[in-house]
Amino acid sequence: MRFIDRDRTKGWLPVRGLTLLGLTLLTSCGINPAQTIKNVAECGRGECDARRPGGELPVGVNLSGFNLTVDTYESCSELQQDVRGQLLDKERDMIVQQARWKRQQVESRNRPINGDVANSSMEDRGAADSASPESAQGGATADESFTNVQEKGVDEADFVKLGTHQFFVYRGKGVEVVERGSLTRVGTIELKDMYSAKLFAFGDRLIVLGAVASSNGRQQSKAMFYRSAATVMPTLEKEIVLEGTYRDARLTDGRLIVVLDRRLEIKPWRSELAGGSVGHVYDRARPDIMMAEDAAPMFPGAQPPSQNWNELPVGVPEEPVVIGSDGTIAGMPCGAIAKARARDLDWRMTAVASINATNPTEEIRQTAILGGGDQIYMSLRNLYVIKRGLNWVPDLGVDDREMTDAGSRLLLELNQTTVITRIALNKEDGALAPTSIGAVRGYVKDQWAFREFAENNGTLVVATSTGYLWSTSGPTQAQNHLFSLVEEGTNLKVVGKVENYGTNENIRAIRYVDKIAYVVTFKNTDPLYAIDLSDVLAPKILGELKIPGFSTYMHPVGEGRMVGVGWDALDLGSVARITGVQVSLFDVADPKAMRRVDNKVHGDSGSYSEVNYNHQAFWFDPTRKLMGVPLREVGSAYGQTVFSGAVIYRVDRDALAEVARISHEDLQSNDQEMRRFAPWWHYSRSSDISRLYSVDGKLVSVSTAGMKFHDFAEPTRELGRVEFPELEWPMDDWNERRW
Known about the structure:
Layout: H1 6-9, H2 20-28, H3 40-44, H4 76-109, H5 122-126, E1 155-156, E2 160-162, E3 166-170, E4 174-179, E5 185-190, E6 194-202, E7 205-212, E8 220-229, E9 232-243, E10 245-252, E11 255-263, E12 279-282, E13 290-293, E14 328-329, E15 332-333, E16 337-338, E17 348-356, E18 365-370, E19 375-378, E20 382-388, H6 405-415, E21 417-425, E22 432-441, E23 450-453, E24 459-466, E25 479-488, E26 491-501, E27 506-513, E28 516-522, E29 525-532, E30 540-548, E31 550-558, E32 561-571, E33 576-587, E34 595-602, E35 619-621, E36 626-634, E37 641-651, E38 656-662, H7 670-676, E39 691-695, E40 698-702, E41 706-710, E42 718-723, H8 733-738
Parallel strand pairs: 16-18
Antiparallel strand pairs: 1-10, 2-3, 3-4, 4-5, 6-7, 7-8, 8-9, 10-11, 11-17, 12-13, 14-15, 17-18, 19-20, 20-21, 21-22, 23-24, 24-25, 25-26, 27-28, 28-29, 29-30, 31-32, 32-33, 33-34, 35-36, 36-37, 37-38, 39-40, 40-41, 41-42
C-alpha cells in the first residue's frame, strides 16, 4: 500500500481507479487490460498471486479511474451509490494488501539486505526534491490593473485594493480605510469572526472575502459587500454566508467568482471482510502516516469516532454520505454536482459560486465537482479547476524492490497526472456550467502553467513536469512538457505537444507573451526555453539559454525584454546551493538567440522576496520604466538581516539601474522591528514592504505598519504617509506568513 504526503509529492493514496486514461496507460506499459486474475477475495486468502509472472503489474485489479466526460448526478441516490461503489472497491482491495503484507513480513525475516539497494522507498527518497515551489509569476501592468494579475480583465483577490475614493488594506483583524485624495486614514472595518481575508474593489464598491468560525462545526466562508464614499467609512450593504472554506476568487465583468473547498461527510463503519477483523485507520491530515492492524476499525476518509469500534455498523452503509436535512450536501443540491473525475476516494468537493458583484441580492449561481481541485486558472470566458494526481491508486501487489520500469512508470503517471475541468461562465446571467474535462501527463507548478488562446477557438496550453529530481534515468527521470488542448464535445483533447525537454530538471517559472511560451527549468542551472505557439497545434522549441540560478517569476517590460526574479545558485555538481535573490534582465527579441544582458544579486542564503512566491508583490510602471521588488536581504549565509524594504530599479534597454531603496523601518513598532532584523530563520519570509503601486502620480508602498507615498523622480522623498494602529500579535496565520 502506498501512502504519500500529497502536498510534498503530488501524492497518491491506495485503491483502484481508471477508465479511458487508465486503459491507455495500461496499454502503453505493455499490459493487456482484458487479462484477469482470480477473485480478489481468493487472492486475499493466499490462493493466487496478485502479480503477473516475473513481478509485472497486476492485471485483474479492474482499474477504473478517470472519468473524462462531463456528467452531473441525477439524484442524491445516484451519488450515494457511486460513493458506495468506491468504498466497496477499497474494501475488496484491502484483503489483498493484508495478505501481501503478511507474506512480505515472513519473507523479510530471512531476506538479506543489499547495502547497494536504497533502503527507503521511492516516495521517501523523492519527497523533498519533488516539492514544487509555490506560485511565482506575474501579469498585467500597473496601467491595466491595480493588482498585478495574470489575465487582463480578470482581477484577483489580494489584501490591498483601490476604489474610486479610498485605499483598502486588510491586516489581520480588520480593513484599514485610507482616503485617496487627502492621504489620511479614515478608520478600520472590524472583522471579528473572519480570518485570512482577501479584497476586491471597483468604483465605489468593496468586497471582503474570507473564512469564518462556524458555530455549527461546518466549514463556512463569508462575502461582505460594502459601498464607499469620500471621507466616510464604507457601509455594509449585503453579507452572504457560503458553505465551505474559501480557496480563491476572481472578478470579471461585474461577476464575483468564488471557489470553495467542501467535503463529503462519510459515515463511520467497520469492514466485514475476514469476519470484521481486517481494516485500517489513517489520519486524514497526515496521509503519510498509516497503521495496519488486524483488529483496527476502518474509518474511510475521517478521523476515528469517539465510540468503540465494535459499536460501529459492519459493512459499507447503503447510503454512506451524510445528507443535510434540506436534502443538500453542504448546501449544494446533488443535481448540481459533477461526477468525480477519478474513482480515487477523494471526498473533497470544489464548489464555485457566481455572484452579481453590483447587485449581490440576485440569485447566486453555483456548481460543484466531486473529487476536489488543487488550484484554478481563469480566462475571460472560462474557469479551469485543476486536480493534481490521484488521491488513491490500487495497490500493485509488488514490493518496492521488485518494481519493474513498467510498474514505476504507471505509478508515476497515475500520481503525476493533471486533470482539468473547464467551467464556462455565461456573461449574461452568471450561470456556471462544466463543459469539458481533459488530462495531461505531469504536474503543474501553479496557475501560470496555463494560458487560454481565445483567438484559437479557446485552445488551452499547459506546461507540466514529470519525474523526480533525484532520479537520473528510467521512467522516474525528471522531464518537462507542453500540451495544447481543444474542446471536442465534452473532452479537452490533446492536439499538440512538446515533450521531454529540460531533462533532470523541473519547471520553476512560465510566462506566455503573445505566441511564445517562456519556460524556466532548474536543477543546477537555469535553462530558459522559448517555445513557439504561432501554431498551437504544433508547438516547437525555438531557443534555449543556460545561466546560473533560476527565475521563479518573469515579467515582460517591452522592447523585446523580460525581467526575471528568482534565486542565484552555486552549481556544486550533483546539487546546487541557493544563495541570494537574483533579478535578471533578458533580451528575448530573438527567441532563437536569447541572452541575459544584466543581473543583480541581493544578499546570501536566507534572503527573500515575496515575488519569488507571489506575483502580486511585483510592481512595474511601463510609462516610467520603473520596477520594484520587496526584499529581505541577509548579509552572509543564513546570518542577520541587513535590509528589509523594497528595491526600486530603472529598466533600461540593456541594464537594471538601482535608483532607490525604501523602507518602513520608521513605521515599525519595537516588536515588528525585532522581526525585521531577526536571524533569517525567524520570520524569514517577512519584509516590511509587501506591495508597491503607481497611483495618482505617486509611488505607493504598503506594509502592515502603514503606507507611504513617494516622488517618482526621487523615491526616497516622501510626499505623505499613513500610520496604522499597532497590531496585537500574533495575528492570524495568513499575516504571520507575509509580515
